[in-house]
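Response to reviewer comment R2.3. The reviewers asked that we include at least one raw input/output pair. We reproduce the pair for ABC transporter ATP-binding protein here without editing.
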Amino acid sequence: MKVDIKEVYMNYHTLENSTRALDNINFSVESGEFVSIVGPSGCGKSTVLNIIAGLLKPSSGEVYIDGELVTNVSPKVGYMFQKDHLFEWLTVLQNVNLGLKIQNKLNDENSLKVIQLLKNYNLWDFRNHYPKELSGGMRQRAALIRTLALSPQVLLLDEPFSALDYQTRLNVSDEIYKILKTEKKTVLMVTHDLSEAISMSDRIIVLSNRPAKVKKEFKMDFCIESISPLKCREAPEFRTYFNMLWKELNLQQ
Ligand code: ADP
Ligand code: MG
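Raw output as returned:
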């Protein structure tokens, strides 16, 4: 499912003043593509995701998902944040079923789907455990399965691994990447970690300081086919891409 962002402007209004966060944002994410957004802190990255998710209305411009104008929150879109937002008093199974239950979609077919996701992604044995009994990586996987249970075609990830320690982060980003590719999702991820962006993405969009404009796009082209994020970090092109992005981000300071 394709995402198109067309001439999007965003101004935040408060009682005292008005802040322009986005200044004519244009880009697309192709079906099945993994795109990352990087840019300075406070430039408007989360604003872009919130607009695509239909949680915020842009001041002007449009977002299309699969050619359809976004006017509200859509079941086609899943959203994952830095915090996993799992409920501590619910088991893993209850947590991953929660979205379906709220939407009155916990039928036999969807229940089976959740069981399959838990089995495929190694959480089945922990289905009756509580979130506090899981590692940070397992919690993030459970949060992803809860999102996938609703069958979104487009996934928005806002700094999904920021709360994890470095070692866990490397492994979890690898796992999550494989899940998203296996499930053939279209992904747009915000991250401030350039290595993470390079190792996971097909393409990286660099935003400018606020008000954010699309400053540059980099296509990641590694010589080895279907390389995993962990392996990608060892590829010879990795350093080159890192330096290119580093330069681009530091040019604007
Ligand atoms: P990023 O995710 O890149 O760090 P955000 O999209 O969260 O940036 O925010 C972009 C800018 O818009 C920031 O300067 C922030 O202070 C401002 N902003 C974000 N949300 C609001 C809001 N609800 N009201 C007013 N200003 C906001
Ligand atoms: Mg943000």
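The first strand starts at residue 3 and ends at 13. The longest helix spans residues 166-182. Further pairs are available on request from the corresponding author.
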